[in-house]
Design goal:
Elements (H helix, E strand, L loop, with lengths): L7 E4 L7 E7 L2 E6 L16
Antiparallel strand pairs: 1-2, 2-3
């Protein structure tokens, strides 16, 4: 079973482009780019703007 992690994600510019900054540890953010999405993957992410 996969581990569950809770963090924050924010769009850097246009919300139609998957260029995000994410944080799992308080005020520290790192860049995150979605390259591809596998339609058969059962994991879903919910992002709040």
């Amino acid at each position: 079973m996969a581990a569950k992690y809770i963090g924050k994600a924010k769009f850097l510019n246009d919300p139609n482009i998957a260029n995000l900054k994410v944080s799992f540890f308080g005020p520290f953010y790192a860049g995150y780019n979605v390259i591809a999405i596998d339609p058969d993957l059962p994991i879903r992410f919910g992002l709040r703007q």
